[in-house]
């Protein structure tokens, strides 16, 4: 799961990113509203954590821009502006949740889980499943029956993306954006290498799930008998 943090306080943004990564999320950071707007509109993120006071474009305007352009991306506003009028403004602009600083990390994580469940992106708080596979978010463990293997960060992100799409085709372009990120220099062969890694691990697990190549398009999962 890839989350975007739009926060101009560099130290706080780094602390948030570390917290999210420790709990199995991929986190990117923007320090101004213009970059935050462009990245949030890229389509590669599952949720945005958004400050209100930002250079370039404030969080309220950024959020209004997203909603006016049809974005349904979950947005959690995280800001020191705690007045009722600011909360109302944030929610009226389209925020899905409004959390004030200082905050408890456990509450922030609970809000994120709630918003992602509401979006329908996760089936339980900690695991996703397909066929005989179970992927654990907090440990990066991929399990099939009594066998299990720990995935690397990149392997986990790719496997999670494939599982969440199941039998639907995921293009190489989508994989590059979702797994490597908007500004990455990764290319198609990077995707092919990591698909190869995952196929070896699926073979090791004796899983009936296979990664199917759709020539010139991308990949999907299938269950063999």
Task: Describe, in plain words, how this protein is organized in 3D.
With 225 residues, the chain is an alpha/beta fold. It has 8 helices and 12 strands. Strand 3, helix 3 and strand 4 (75-79) form a beta-alpha-beta unit. The two termini are 30 Å apart.
> What sort of overall outline do the alpha carbons produce when their principal axes are compared?
elongated
Give a quick account of the main beta sheet: strands, pairing sense, barrel closure: 5 strands, parallel
Number of helices: 8
Approximately what portion of the residues adopt beta-strand conformation?
15-25%
Point out poorly predicted stretches.
Answer: none
Percent of residues in helices: 40-55%
- Topology as a string of helices (H) and strands (E): EHEHEHEHEHEEEEHEHHEE
């Amino acid at each position: 799961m890839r989350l975007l943090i739009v926060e101009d306080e560099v130290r706080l943004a780094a602390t948030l990113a570390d917290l999210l990564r420790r709990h199995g999320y991929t986190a990117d950071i923007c320090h101004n509203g213009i970059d935050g707007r462009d990245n949030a509109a890229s389509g590669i993120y599952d949720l945005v954590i958004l400050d209100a006071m930002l250079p370039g474009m404030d969080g309220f305007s950024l959020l209004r821009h997203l909603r006016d352009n049809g974005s349904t991306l979950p947005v959690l506003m995280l800001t020191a502006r705690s007045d009722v009028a600011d909360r109302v403004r944030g929610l009226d602009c389209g925020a899905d949740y409004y959390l004030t600083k200082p905050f408890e990390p456990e509450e922030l994580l609970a809000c994120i889980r709630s918003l992602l469940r509401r979006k329908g992106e996760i089936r339980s708080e900690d695991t996703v499943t397909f066929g005989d596979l179970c992927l654990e978010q907090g440990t990066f463990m991929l399990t099939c029956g009594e066998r299990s293997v720990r995935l690397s960060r990149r392997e986990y992100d790719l496997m999670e993306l494939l599982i969440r799409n199941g039998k639907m085709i995921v293009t190489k372009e989508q994989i590059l954006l979702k797994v490597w990120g908007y500004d990455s220099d990764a290319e198609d062969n990077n995707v092919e290498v990591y698909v190869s890694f995952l196929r070896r691990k699926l073979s090791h697990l004796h899983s009936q799930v296979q990664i199917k190549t759709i020539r010139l398009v991308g990949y999907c999962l299938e269950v063999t008998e």
